[in-house]
Amino acid sequence: MNKNLPKTQTSKNGMVISPHFAASDAGLEILKQGGNALESTIAVASSLAIHYPHMTGIGGDAFWLVYDPQEGVSFIEASGYSGFDVNMSQYEGLKTIPFRGRLAANTAAGAVSAWDLAFKKSKNEWSGTMPESKLVEEAVNSAKNGIVVTKSLSDTLEEKKEELFVDEYFAEVYYPNGNIPKEGEKLVQEKLGNTLEKLGTNGFDDFYRGSLAKDISDDFESRDGLISQKDLSEHHASWNKPLEMKISKGKLFNASAPTQGVASLMILGLFDRWCEKLPQKDSANHVHLLVEATKIAFKHRDKMDTSSSPEELQKWLEPEYLDKLSLELDLEKALPWGENAAPGDTTWFGVSDSKGRIVSAIQSIYHEFGSGLTLPNTGIVWQNRGCSFALDSTHIQALEPHKKPFHTLNPAIALFDDGRVMAYGTMGGDGQPQTQAAVFSRYAYYDEDLSACINNPRWLLGRTWGNSSQSLKLESRFDEELINELKQKGHDVEILKDLDSAVGHAGALVYHPSKTIEGAFDPRSDGKASSF
């Protein structure tokens, strides 16, 4: 073990889980001052945009699941379309969309529109009283006064310097005086702080239809960018119907298209078919069944149109359909695998207030620092989610004007039959459904302690950052007997270091009928479970 593993936290008043300690504390402060779960989540989201800029930001997208004991689960879909003027001719001579630079920044950013919808619901339906300025206050102050650089941030800036330093406006902020910021040093993001302050003063919709939208479009024009003021003004987040699936333990909810939420549900739905003959916890068969279910789910996911309705995707979650698919699971033999996996940097965060209202949220700029394209006056680093598009007109994800790209982002909520409510999620591209399955199965089927569900060794099928192999990657704490058994089943096994970020930065919270809240964060992150 290379660090002391965190313990499950409990509270009766409120809980905030995020992958950065300062963001968790920012959300907690809102709860302490009488704010609700939606208000707290906005504070966490804005804080992460400053403290965790390599993983998330206001130039990205977001998806939220919101649970209200009276209303059930609802879904905020806040992802951006490709620009109205974006088309394949702009990529002539290229086989794929670049990961970095102006051509990678080809979709509108939806994250702030999620804040706006959540703020309006808080004010109009949950009696929220806090102004936008209060909710972004910690983020504004931290951006202007400087954040303390973590090892995660410093390591990412060092590893990706060759790709990112070429953007002069990015380098001006994140490589001050040409240097890589070291762990413990201060990093100031003044222009980004000014932008957040403007959002707090003018309201979150200013990002899309106000003076800030004009500033952003002017910034894009100065960079010969692909996003226009029209792309921003025509963007709207929406309240949508989440996907849902009944299992033996209760009901699971996840995000619908354009996300891979259906895959996350299918994996657990297939595993649930083994609930009466469960393999031993964290055994080779436990891992094997979830990996095999992942292969089946991903083959379905990769056929999905990003414009699919929830009703279309629900068909894959019907009991009869999952019963039939489960026959493909062989306990002794691994299915063939060679799919293209999607890496991705993301932040999951969850909040529960004292009334049992819960938010499970994901906000992302896709790759580390997204496209790297940095807007000179607003300080926003724009996402590169649009590199999910294909430059092949026959492909289901073919690039077109005003089209949503495929998203790996998918926050989860579970309503147990005994009254417990669980919010959980992770960053990690294609690893998200796999880590969700590991965490949820340990908790729901094996009654594992919540922190242990996250702390225990995990796995990843497919490629990840800097590693293009399609192997089954296992953290080194798995014992040799399990590793050998998986090899005998036909898995191409590769060993990762202990507590490797490749398997995601997960988090979970559970609200019990007794009104006790449990929370756990991932030791692989810079996170914290903040409660009072």
UniProtKB/TrEMBL annotation:
Q: Does the keyword Transport apply?
A: no
Single GO molecular-function term?
transferase activity
Q: Which Pfam families match?
A: G_glu_transpept
Q: Which Gene3D superfamilies match?
A: 1.10.246.130, 3.60.20.40
Q: Does the keyword Nucleotidyltransferase apply?
A: no
Keywords assigned by UniProt, alphabetized: Transferase
Protein name stated in the entry = Gamma-glutamyltransferase family protein
Q: What is the lineage of its organism?
A: Bacteria, Pseudomonadati, Campylobacterota, Epsilonproteobacteria, Campylobacterales
